[in-house]
Amino acid sequence: MAEEKKNLGEMINTFDMAAGEALGKRESHTPKIEAPKAVKADETFEVRISVQNHPNKMEHSIRWIEVYFREDGRPFNPIMLARIDFTPTYSEPEAKLKVKLSKSGSILAMEYCNVHGLWSAKEVIKVE
Fold first, then answer.
1. Mean pLDDT in the chain?
2. What are the tens digits of pLDDT across the range 104-116?
3. Does any domain span residue 5?
4. Signed CA dihedral, 4, 18, 99, 73: sign only
5. Domain for residue 78, yes or no?
6. Dihedral of CA 9/124/49/17: which sign?
7. Domain tally for the chain?
8. 11 in a domain, yes or no?
9. CATH of the domain at 62
10. Could you tell me if 101 and 15 are in contact, meaning their C-beta atoms sit under 8 angstroms apart?
11. Can you give the pLDDT at residue 6?
């Protein structure tokens, strides 16, 4: 049987768009983004990304998290802020970043589970 062709974006799960078998994986796979809802322009603030309640073994673990910023009004988005690789059993899937924005937009986090694929989340941040 031929495999169905999909674009990469169609293979990324989110909490709201998960379906089928992925529904039961939402809580332990969707990245959690902790960031202020509003910040002052060009002032540094902290963003914390984590994946909670997930196994951390060689055979099943979160291998990396990527963090992006989609800036309102920018013609080419997103801007990559960081990529953090994790070693199973030795490191937990959590990252803290210091970020400075001049325009409003969204923090996007994507993580890769070696068993359950790509998962993404988004948090809107207003720059005042």
1. 95
2. 999 999 999 999 9
3. no
4. positive
5. yes
6. negative
7. 1
8. no
9. 2.60.40.730
10. no
11. 85
| pLDDT tens-digit profile, the chain (128 residues) | 556 778 999 999 999 988 888 899 999 999 999 999 999 999 999 999 999 999 999 999 999 999 999 999 999 999 999 999 999 999 999 999 999 999 999 999 999 999 999 999 999 999 99
Token pair for residue 62? 């979160």
The two tokens of residue 38 are 């509003």
Asked whether residue 17 is assigned to any structural domain, the reply reads no
End-to-end CA distance of the chain: 54
pLDDT score at 2: 57
Look up residue 90 and give its two tokens.
């030795």
Q: Count Cβ atoms within 10 A of the Cβ of residue 123 and give its class: 0-12 exposed, 13-18 middle, 19 or more buried.
A: middle
Q: What's the whole-model pTM score? A: 0.92
- Structural domain for 61, as ranges: 32-127
